[in-house]
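Workshop exercise sheet. Pairs work together: one partner reads the sequence aloud, the other fills in the structure field after running the prediction. Swap roles for the next sheet.
Pair: D.N. / O.F.
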Amino acid sequence: MYVYKINYAIVHTLIIFFIINCQITLGQDFNISNEKLSDFYLGIENPIKAVAEEISCDNLILITDNGKISGGGCDYVIKPGHEGVAKLELYQLVKKDSILVGTSLFRVMRLPKPVARVANQRGGKIKKPVLQAQTTIIVILENFDINIFFAVKEYTVTILRNNVALYNEVVYDRLIPDSIKEKFSELSTGDVVVFSNIKAMWPDQKVDTLEIINLIIE
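Structure field:
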């Protein structure tokens, strides 16, 4: 007799997919959608569009069990409070009462760690004039469809020649000061400029230390 084996990992994945992507309707056609991405992310405002068939936006209200929602009509933003799942419920306002139109569930995730760049590089070889022309360190989320401003709170610049440190300075800003630019003018081929201890602050005030940038002068 052949015994069927259940792949519980696949079953679990399908259940999670159903939970995250389902919309529970109570007879009224509606849609609650993330305007930018399929998931919600912590620490930022996620834009939402909520509409229902034959109901004016002025008569709709959206609530959640995870974080805070602001806005009104059909356009909202949500700032989730924790990872996991956010349940969004869309209500129709009828006089002094509210009627549930439908419910949607969204996955809530942490944003990927940002990366720092100088001259749009995370490392490698660089021409001396190109490095001298730089005015700031930039911090971005790579391959992500949301622009987020990260404040650079601190970084350290070290100049190495033949593995010996010639110069070291700590900066408490995203800008590259004139004192460091003057040292860049003294660089020779093969020198290594290291940007380390790069501390970037998220919109929610959380601070991350980012990966080191090693630039080798051509």
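Discussion prompt: Residues 115-217 form a domain with the Immunoglobulin-like fold (CATH 2.60.40). What would you look at next?
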